[in-house]
Amino acid sequence: MKKFLVVDDHPIVRHGFALSVREIHPGAEVLEAGSLADATDIVARTPDLTLVLFDLQLGQGHGQDGVRHMVEALGDTPLLVISGSDEVADIVDSVRLGARGYILKTSSTEVLEHAISLALTGETFLPLPRAVLAGTVTAQPTRPSGQLVDRLTGRQRDVFQLLLAGNSNKEIARELGVLEGTVKVHVRAIMQKLGVRNRTQVAVVAARSGCFPESE
Length: 216
Description:
The chain is an alpha/beta fold. The chain has helices spanning 11-24, 36-45, 63-74, 88-96, 109-120, 129-134, 154-164, 169-176, 180-194, 199-208; strands at residues 3-7, 29-33, 51-55, 79-83, 101-104. Strands 2-1-3-4-5 form a five-stranded parallel beta sheet, sandwiched between helices. α4 (88-96) links the parallel β4 (79-83) and β5. The chain is elongated. It starts with a strand and ends in an 8-residue tail after the last helix. The model is unreliable at 129-146 (pLDDT under 50).
């Protein structure tokens, strides 16, 4: 029997996700926890958990520290972050800490089902801008083979690092002392080499490849 754990400090949200999981996996046992302490206790006494849905905005200000704690406690059991935030930094940090996916709380049951399916097969689900706007699942960027930065020229690496730091094209141009149009050319070339279509996907690929700047 599959066993799922839903962790969220808002009872209505938690119950809603639990009901969705039961709809996706009829007959599965779905456990619930409203705090990190309760979730940790359940994980300790339930070694055969199938998957955990974990709220990024869990009370008591745990945030990414809570994700890190749960990933370490779960070992090989996959964890999917659930969140109301579609900020790239939150998505990237969650993946870098070991989450198998990031689901917006506004997502449909179909999106949740897809995310769970990917996580259970060792893949990672990530929301991308078009998926967020349309409420549908968008194809995920794949991890490039070899060292990611080795694919880039020296100037492209400079742009790449500033891009990951959240700088706009104008800010990158100012930092490097070049024209904004030149930066746009480099950004397009970087995306083409990485096989992605937008800045969010660049950040996702960087996180998967382990070359995203460490948080301070």
